Amino acid sequence: MEQTAFDDPAYRAAAVDLLGVLAYGELTAFERMAEDAKLASNLNDKAELAALATTEFGHFQRLRDRLVELGVDPMDAMQPFVTPLDAFHDHTAPSDWLEGLVKAYVGDGLANDFYREIASFVDAETRALVLDVFGDSGQAEFVVDRVRAAIEEDPKVGGRLALWGRRLVGEALSQAQRIAADRDSLTALLAGSVDRPGLDLAAIGRMFTRLTEAHTARMTALGLQA
């Protein structure tokens, strides 16, 4: 741990909030994927999604352990994010197997990209953990294969899933705005301070361009229009 960084109360609060939202995000991802596995039409797909759910829980455990290392109760760190994240999942509950796959790939992918961007502004140990946790968890090939096969079988599915992908992005942005409004520490982390450079308006613009391009690439990989 970089002691000098955590000596700053404002930075410590921001880092704890970041780890808290990430930990709860991974815990709910595990819960959601395990539930979505019930929608699978065959045992192989059920097992594939269950394996992804297990990966998400492993990520949660690593983030939880990091909070414990910092002397923070993980449950306390996660609590502020229960309401907004639960609201997001309530508003984006998939109606079928394919919507669940798109949500796992597109919705989670956008969030993960954003968290990797934020990782640029935290201490080296926390940054390494975030980048490792939010690297490719191996879901891409499985999801792309299943979604493309479904579209090939019934092209009308593509239009429905494209609309679903756009809805996921809109809901994710609303969720992010709500969290930023409620948690000044996270906003301050991006804005920076005297001894920690942050993002100016141009840099924020470039960040959202990268996020948009990555989202478009994911939708294209699925055979969907962004």
TrEMBL record:
Q: Which residues form a coiled coil?
A: none
Ferritin-like domain: from which residue to which, for each copy? 10-192
* InterPro entries named in the record: Ferritin-like (IPR012347), Ferritin-like_SF (IPR009078), Ferritin_actino (IPR059125)
Q: Kindly name one Pfam family recorded for this protein.
A: MiaE_2
* Protein name (database record): tRNA-(MS[2]IO[6]A)-hydroxylase MiaE-like protein
According to its UniProt entry, this protein's organism is: Kribbella pratensis
